[in-house]
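sry for the spam today, last one i promise. struct tokens for design, 138 residues
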């Protein structure tokens, strides 16, 4: 009979603790797992947009409210004084258009009233679009 190999002290304890942590992680509600992403999306909105925009319907500020922006015709929100170029843009906001606008607003609608806003990275813009959709922006 061969001698049984010795297991270093604490190995089983670490294995059991690791398995328990994995089980806890896998059984956590998906909302808990997604929380950091939504926090990052809200933070991106707060950093880039909140000074001028709200996601609350009817709450127009320096910029129009962004409630239900996805699917809305550009420049069409009642009770907001859009630039002539935004009123005449002739498109409906979708994820791609919003992302491109946040990255390079003048390339999407030249003559918009977003100055001095110069744009954000595509990664930040995608987070903002995710936040807008989660906050009722679709």
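last one done:
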């Amino acid at each position: 009979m061969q001698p049984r190999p010795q297991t270093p002290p604490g190995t089983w304890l670490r294995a059991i603790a690791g398995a328990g942590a994995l089980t806890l992680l896998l059984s956590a509600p998906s909302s808990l797992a997604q929380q950091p992403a939504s926090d990052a999306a809200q933070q991106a909105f707060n950093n880039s947009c909140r000074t001028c925009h709200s996601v609350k319907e009817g709450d127009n500020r320096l910029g129009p409210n962004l409630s239900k922006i996805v699917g809305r015709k550009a420049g069409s929100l009642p009770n907001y004084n859009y630039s002539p170029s935004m009123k005449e843009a002739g498109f409906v906001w979708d994820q791609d258009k919003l992302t491109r606008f946040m990255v390079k607003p003048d390339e999407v609608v030249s003559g918009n009233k977003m100055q001095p806003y110069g744009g954000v990275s595509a990664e930040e813009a995608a987070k903002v679009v995710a936040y807008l959709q989660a906050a009722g922006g679709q």
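The chain has six helices and no strands. ok im logging off now
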